[in-house]
Sequence to fold (222 residues):
Amino acid sequence: MVRIKLAVLISGRGSNLQSLIDACAEESFPARIVQVISNVPGVAGLGRAEAAGIPAAVVDHKAFEDRQSFEAGLNEALEKSGVDLICLAGFKRLLTDGFINPWRDRLINIHPSLLPAFKGVHAHEQVVESGARFSGCTVHFVRPDMDDGPVIIQAVVPVHGDDDADALAARILAQEHRIYPRAVRLFAEKRLRIAGGRVLIDGAGAPEGALVNPCADGGRRK
Fold:
């Protein structure tokens, strides 16, 4: 089995990185992580990579004069690793068109809401304040607009009446850990096809076992 090469970009604790590390440790998983890069020195995610024996590096955005030079340094590190797919996993830097476009359809992200709803930061707070009955998480191909791009897979999580942002975040995080490796597997198995801005799986509709938003109206709590 040929295993594709992954790079994982992080900025913090790396819990989604860990889910990918665990998946890649399985002999049957069609991908392996060859590089972990953080834009923040000393974060816990770097320790996770080290513990797993994965090469890890810091490309500190503060060490560069501007965003373009930072992205050039980041791109250089990725190209040296010969990666096939880049996974953003809690990476807290907005990337420009100049970085994203050369990696088009080889760059994916996980976001803690059911995109296109609740983009940007503080998604859980947005959900709770909105009164939505459902939230979840989304793995998608990255496009230049923030939290935009064809959806690969989503998982739905109910919003309880007594939820605060932290309680909701914890339940959603468990689903993030489940669907991110699944999305990587679909990519590695060459089962993903983009047509008309939508992701198709082997010419079908939703991925096997994928959960989608059951409330087309946004599901306001009563």
Remarks:
- The radius of gyration is 17 Å.
